[in-house]
Write a structure and sequence with these properties.
Elements (H helix, E strand, L loop, with lengths): L1 E8 L4 E8 L4 E5 L6 H13 L3 E6 L11 H8 L3 E4 L3 H5 L1 H7 L13 E3 L4 E4 L2 E7 L8 E5 L4 E5 L2 E2 L2 E2 L9 H12 L7 E4 L5 E2 H7 L4
Parallel strand pairs: 3-4, 4-5, 5-6, 10-13
Antiparallel strand pairs: 1-2, 2-3, 7-8, 8-9, 9-10, 11-12, 13-14
Length: 213
């Protein structure tokens, strides 16, 4: 069984998720947004206090606020980054992304080590997360679906009562609506939606109530 801990981090109030298997103690970090040193220390402390082995990093997309902590985790834990291949140009453009938001202390791109595609499986102990391609907020946006426990990490594609913005590089509104409709709203209504910002929701609630859908 998987446990999930959420950290709300950086000036963008981004949700970073630490997901771990109770038996094997294997863990991954989804969308590491640690910007400040105390945020790095908080993740370190949680891993140490719970005797967890970090086996990987998975990004739902490669916008800056979801990537601030990637290099720290790579260097300290030797973890590799998995993300959709279509977002590789966003990773390369990380310094430019940061400068557009007035952040001048980041001058290195983010390199994908494992290039994901729809249908790929992320393993954590005996548990599986299935990759769903959800482009539109970014070309390589993905969701990570756990059918056994009825939850899905959706990054910035879908929020409670809203959807991701599509005015950033590589965004497309029609593509996002189609991807949400085909890729996310096809999941069971009781699926918990864990977004890149804000509070959880469910697929059923968004199907019935989201004004953008």
């Amino acid at each position: 069984m998987l446990n999930i801990t959420r950290f709300v981090l950086n000036p963008f109030q981004e949700n970073t998720y630490l997901v771990y298997d109770q038996v094997s103690r294997e863990a991954i970090v989804i969308d590491p947004g640690m910007y400040y040193e105390e945020e790095n220390k908080a993740v370190d402390k949680f891993l140490a206090d719970n005797n967890l082995l970090l086996t990987g990093i998975v990004n739902t997309h490669l916008h800056l606020d979801h990537c601030f902590g990637v290099e720290f985790l790579k260097q300290k834990y030797g973890a590799e980054l998995a993300a959709h291949k279509a977002d590789a140009p966003l990773g390369d453009s990380m310094p430019q992304q940061c400068r557009r938001f007035g952040i001048k202390d980041r001058d290195k791109g983010v390199a994908i080590d494992r290039r994901l595609a729809a249908g790929d499986i992320i393993s954590i102990g005996d548990n599986e997360l299935k990759v769903i391609h959800v482009p539109g907020h970014s070309p390589g946006g993905i969701a990570l679906y756990c059918a056994a426990q009825h939850f899905v990490f959706v990054g910035d594609s879908l929020f409670k009562g809203s959807i991701g913005r599509t005015d950033l590089e590589g965004g497309n509104h029609a593509t996002l609506i189609r991807a949400i409709t085909d890729g996310l709203l096809s999941l069971p209504d009781d699926t918990t939606v864990l977004s890149g910002h804000g509070e959880p929701t469910t697929i059923g609630y968004e199907r019935r109530s989201n004004p953008y859908l």
